[in-house]
Amino acid sequence: MKQFDLGKEKINKLLLAFSIPCVISMLINSVYNIVDQIFIGKGVGTLGNGATNVIFPLIIIFNAFAGLVGNGASAHMSLKLGEGKKKEASKVVGQAIVVTFILSICLGIVSYLFLPKLVYLFGCTDTVYEYALDYGRIIILGSPFMIIYTALSNIIRADGSPKYAMGMLIIGAVINMILDPLFIFTFDLGVKGGALATVIGQVVSFMITLLYLRKFKTIKINRESLRLNKNVFVTLSLGLSSFITQSTVLVLFVFMNNVMTKYGALSKYGSDIPLSVYGVMSKVNSLFISTVLGISIGAQPIVGFNYGAGNEERVKETFKKVLLINFIMGFFFNLVFICFPKQIAGIFIVKTDPSYSLFMEFAQMMCHSFFLVIFLNALEITGSILIQSLGKVKKATALSFIRQIILFIPISLFLCIVLDKGVYGVLYAGCISDVLCFIIAIFVIGSEYKKFGKNKDSFIQEQEQKKSTYTGKPIVITIAREYASGGRYVGKLLADKLGISFYDKELISLTAKKSGLSEKYIHEAEEKARKSENDDRLFIAESKVIKELARKESCVIVGRCADYILKDNENTVKLFLYTDAESKVKRAVKYYGLNKKDALEKINTINKSRAKHYQFYTNRSWYDLNNYDLMLHVDKLGVDKTVDYLIKFLETL
Asked: CA of 342: how far to CAs of 280, 355, 365, 375, in Å?
C-alpha cells in the first residue's frame, strides 16, 4: 500500500486516507456490540438487553487499556518519526506490544475471577444476573484478543496502513454478524451465542493483526526494541488522555446503570426498562462517538508528525478541518435522535414483548432530553484527542474529564436528589452538561490554537517593516564560507555598508513563517546537517524563502547553498570566502571557544560536513571555483579591507 508523506501531502487527502478507515474501524467496534444487542433483544428480550448493558462497562475497561497503550504508542511514534528518530520510534512500538500482551492477560484473569461481584457494581438487577454472567464469562475469554488487536490497530494506522487496520476489523465483524443469528436462533444459545459469535470474530481479527508485525513500513521490530525501559511511561502518558476519556465513559456508564435501576424502580417504568433502554440507546450513540473519535484519531498521525516536525501551519489546518467535519457529523446524528427515536428503539425489541409500549416511551423521552444536543460533544472529543497528539497530556486529560465527572454526575445528583426529579433529572442533566462542557472546551482549545506561530510574530513584523537604504541596481550576494574564516562577519559588514538586508540566522524565522516549520525544528535540522544528516523538507522550505527574498529585495545571504539555488538569477553575485589554517584556529579559539589543541580537527570536520551537504543537494563540489564569481582569502587583507575590496569589486559589475 502507498506510504503517505505526512509532512507534504495535502491535508484533505491525508484525512481521507487515515480517518475514513479509522472511522470504519471504530464503527465496527461499536457494531460488534450493537449487533449482539439487536439479535439478543429480538431473541431473548429486555432481560437479554439488560445483561449486555451490564457487561458493557467491562468492554469499556478493555478498550480503555487498549487505548492507553495503542493511542499513546501511535502518538509517540508519530512524534518520533516527525523528528526523524526512527530507531526510537521502533522502541516505542516494540515496548507497546510487550505491555499490551501483559495487560490483556492480567485484565482477563482479574475480570473473570471477580465477575459475580462486578455485575452488581455495574448496576445489575436480580432478574438480569444469570444472563449477565452467561454473557460476561464468554466475553472475558475473548478479551485478550480484543485488547491486543485494538491497541495494535492504532499503531498500524500510524505506520501508514489505515486500510489494513480497517480490513482486519471488518473481517471480524462480518464473522460476528454471520454467527450471531446462527448461534442465538438456530442453536438456541441465547446470550451465550451472542457472546460466542463476538469472541470468534475477535480471534480472527487478532490473528490478522499478528501478521502485520513483520510488515511495518516506517520501523523495524527486533529483540532490542521489545525490551522494556522507563521510556514506556512516556508512551503511556501520551495515551493517558484516551484512557481518561474511556474511564470517564466507564464511570458515566456505571453511574447511569445504577441510577436507572434505582430511580427507574420508583417510576412507572420499573428498573429493567430504563436499564435496557439506556443500554441500547447509548450503544446507538456510540456510532456518533466512534465517528468523531475515528476522524480525530485518524488525524493523530498527521498532527503528531507535523507538530514533531515543527510544521505548525499544517497542524492548524488539520485542527480546523477535523473540527468542521466532526460538527457536521454531530449535527447529522443529533437530527436522527430527535426525529426518529421510536424507529431506533424498535430495532432492539419485538412488538410482542410485554414491555414494548413503556420501552418505546422511555426511549423517546431519552432522545428528547439526554441526547438533545449531543452534537456539542464533538468539540470536547476532538479537542481532547488532537491536543493529546501535541503531547499536551494534562490539558487533554482535563478536557476529557470535564463533561462526565466534573459536570454531569454532580448535576444529575442535584436534579435527582435535591430537586427530587428522580430518573427524569438524570435525563435532563445530560443536555445541560453538554452545553456547559462546550463553552469550557471553546476556551481550552482556543487557547491552544492561538499559540501556533505566536513566537514568530515580533521578528516577522520587524523584518517586514525594515527599509533598505540601498539605491543601486538590484543585487543579491551569496556567501559560501569556510568555518572560522570570518565569512559571516564580512557578509554582515558588507550588507551594513551597502545598506541592504543581511540573512543568516535570520532565515530561520523567515523559513518558519513561510513553511510552518518551527524555529526549534529548523535550528536542530541545520545542526544535523553539520553531521551530514540532510533534511529535504528544510532544504525545500529554505529554497523557497531564498528565491522569494531574491525577487523582493537586494540582500546578502550566507550559506544554505544559496549560490546554487539562485544560479539562474541574473542579479546574483556568488562569493566564496576562506582563509589559512592558522587564522581559522585563532578565530575559532577567540570567538567560538574551541580548545586550541583540537580546534583544527573540529574546523576540518565542520567544513567536510558543509562540503558533503553542498554536494548532496547540488551535485557539485563546494570548493569548485566555477561555482563562484569570486573566491577570496579573507586574512590576506583583513576583514575590513576585504569588505572595502568587495564593494569596489561590486561597483565594476
From this structure: 12, 14, 10, 20
The DSSP 8-state label assigned to residue 633 in this structure reads E
Interatomic CA distance for residues 384 and 398, integer angstroms = 8
Provide the residue ranges of all domains of the chain, joining segments of one domain with +. 11-452, 457-651
Mean pLDDT by groups of 10 residues along the chain of 653 residues: 64 85 77 78 82 88 92 84 80 94 96 95 90 94 94 87 84 89 90 92 93 88 87 84 77 88 90 88 88 86 74 82 93 94 89 89 94 91 79 73 83 91 92 93 84 53 55 90 93 92 87 71 72 72 89 92 92 95 91 87 91 90 93 93 93 85
> Do the beta carbons of residue 423 and residue 266 sit within 8 Å?
yes
Tens-digit pLDDT profile for residues 60-114: 899 899 989 998 898 888 778 766 778 888 999 999 999 999 999 999 999 999 9
Rounded Cα gap, residues 608 and 530, in angstroms: 9
- Among 51, 83, 5, CA closest to 524: 83
For 570, phi then psi, to 5°, come to: -70, -20
58, burial (CB in 10 Å: exposed 0-12, middle 13-18, buried 19+): buried
Contacts of 77 (CB under 8 A, 6+ apart): 89, 92, 93, 155, 158, 159, 219
Give the rounded distance of the alpha carbon of 473 from its chain centre.
50
DSSP 6-62: TTTS-HHHHHHHHHHHHHHHHHHHHHHHHHHHHHHHHHT-HHHHHHHHHHHHHHHHH
Please tell me the distance from the alpha carbon of residue 516 to that of residue 316, in angstroms, as a whole number.
9
Phi, psi torsion values for 359, nearest 5 degrees = -60, -50
What is the per-residue pLDDT across 441-485, written as a single tens digit (0 to 9) for each? 898 888 877 776 554 444 444 454 455 567 778 899 999 999 999
CATH class (in words) of the domain with range 457-651: alpha beta
How do beta strands 501-503 and 572-578 pair?
unpaired
pLDDT digits (tens, 9 = 90+) for 141-191: 999 999 999 999 889 988 888 788 888 888 988 898 899 999 998 888 988
Q: Are 67 and 37 in contact (CB under 8 A)?
A: no
In angstroms, the first-to-last Cα distance of the chain is 55
Q: Is this model's pTM higher than 0.85 or not?
A: no
Position 422, amino acid: G
> Are the CB atoms for 615 and 621 separated by under 8 Å?
yes
Q: What's the length of the chain?
A: 653
Q: Cα Rg for the chain, rounded, in angstroms? A: 32
